[in-house]
Amino acid sequence: MDYIHKSVLLDESIEGLNIKTNGIYVDATLGGGGHTQEILKRAADGKVIGIDQDDYAIERAKDKLKEFKNFIPVKNNFSNIKEVLEDLNIEKVDGIIFDLGVSSFQLDIPERGFSYNYDMPLDMRMDKNQTTTARHIVNGYEEHELSRILWEYGEEKWAARIAKFIVQEREHEFIETTGQLVSIVKKAIPKQVRQEGSHPAKRTFQAIRIEVNRELEILENTMKDAVDCLNVGGRICVITFHSLEDRIIKNAFNDLNKDCICPPEFPKCMCDHRRKLKIITRKPVLPSEEELVENRRAHSAKLRIGERV
After folding, report:
1. Per-residue pLDDT at 192
2. Contacts from 156-163 at CB under 8 Å and sequence distance 24+?
3. What is the pLDDT of residues 26-77, one digit of tens each?
4. CA–CA distance, 81 with 228 (Å, rounded to integer)
5. What is the reported pLDDT for 1?
6. DSSP one-letter string for the chain
7. d(CA 300, CA 86)
8. Per-residue confidence (pLDDT) for residue 266, from 0 to 100
9. According to the model, what pLDDT value does residue 3 have?
10. pLDDT of residue 106
11. pLDDT score recorded for residue 224
């Protein structure tokens, strides 16, 4: 299946990287390759490393970007950015971009099991080599654990009720498909509420996807590692798509912008923490009205930019 990939906040993030012709850059979430392609055009005498844990993303990017000899694709998780650069004998880079969340093609390929718009096997793995799938979580987690992740990762106010309905349903038969899960969520959420706003299963699918791929667990430490990999003056751009991600990035940027992160009750500094990042965007950059019209997936996007000091 072919798909049309539109990189969100493309112009704003590329401008934010402040690209040098001979610079070294990392697209830590290669995905459809849109950001990578634009960086490659501007860093013609440098290098661009594209990291993704999805085999399909790597293969598509290799084909799409084959004209660029300075493109280096790497199959890995962005949480291993330091190890990736060490393996390439690269000490520091001039810019890193993160486009977080699920990629367009992962949503648009029904067999991946990310979308509530198709009835397909529950999967949601970004890395097909990992063993845990959405099916394992939906059928294996205790009710209180299901409720927790739906509330924490989906900010779903009907979390407890949805978890209860999932457990009741799986007592009769295994929940194997996205269609079954959507049906359960619709039963759990009162009809008058379901008629308002977005798809009733959106938050549930978000929460389970985050749990499957451990998306939030690794973010804070990854931001610290990424900033450590930057040359002085190098830029980091992070695009988020929901409040949980954005809060983590905002807090990580704020901590990296401080000389001390000790609790306020400490009489003197004990952390030996030193400022590493200047925050370029005090408020996140949002998509333009034009982009919102052209790309429905841009609606919740926010871009934050920092510079290594």
Report:
1. 80
2. 156/203, 156/204, 156/207, 158/188, 158/189, 158/193, 161/188, 161/189, 162/188, 162/189, 162/204
3. 999 999 899 999 999 999 999 999 999 999 899 999 999 999 999 999 999 9
4. 10
5. 43
6. -------TTHHHHHHHHT--TT-EEEESS-TTSHHHHHHHHH-TTSEEEEEES-HHHHHHHHHHTTT-TTEEEEES-GGGHHHHHHHTT---EEEEEEE-S--HHHHHSGGG---TTS--BS---SSTTSS--HHHHHHHS-HHHHHHHHHHHH--TTHHHHHHHHHHHHTTS---BHHHHHHHHHHHS-HHHHTSSS-TTHHHHHHHHHHHHTTTTTHHHHHHHHHHTEEEEEEEEEEESSHHHHHHHHHHHHHHT-S--S-TT-SS--S-----EEES-SS-B---HHHHHH-GGGTT-EEEEEEE-
7. 34
8. 80
9. 45
10. 67
11. 95
How far is the C-alpha of 58 from the C-alpha of 282, rounded, in Å? Answer: 34
Q: Quick one: three-class SS letters along 206-266?
A: HHHHHHHHCCCCCHHHHHHHHHHCEEEEEEEEEEECCHHHHHHHHHHHHHHCCCCCCCCCC
pLDDT below 50 — which residues of the chain?
Answer: 1-3
What pTM does this model have? Answer: 0.88
State both tokens at 274: 């030193």
Could you give the percent of the chain with pLDDT greater than 90? 77
